[in-house]
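>> received
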Amino acid sequence: LAPMRYGARALFDDGDNASLRFAMTFDSAPQATRQIALRKQLTTGQFVGRTGQMSDLLTLDSTHTDGPTGWLDFDFNPDTARFMDGEGPLLFATCSP
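>> returned
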């Protein structure tokens, strides 16, 4: 994993569906493509810093890159999943120097 230059996370909720986006900017477009592919692999399996599996709370909907920026979009149930309260790391999205 390479460190990000910038990272951000956002919640979208239209009343019926909720999604969570993790955006990351890297040094170059090729690096962003590689990093999003690597971080996509880290969205499965054990939920590091929490109990259970990633898929218990998050469903990866899509990944994208645009130049040096890439993002991971997830669907989730806001009634059962909390992510903005500091309740443990999301290592695929927060690795930085």
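>> The beta strands are 6-13, 18-25, 58-66, 69-76.
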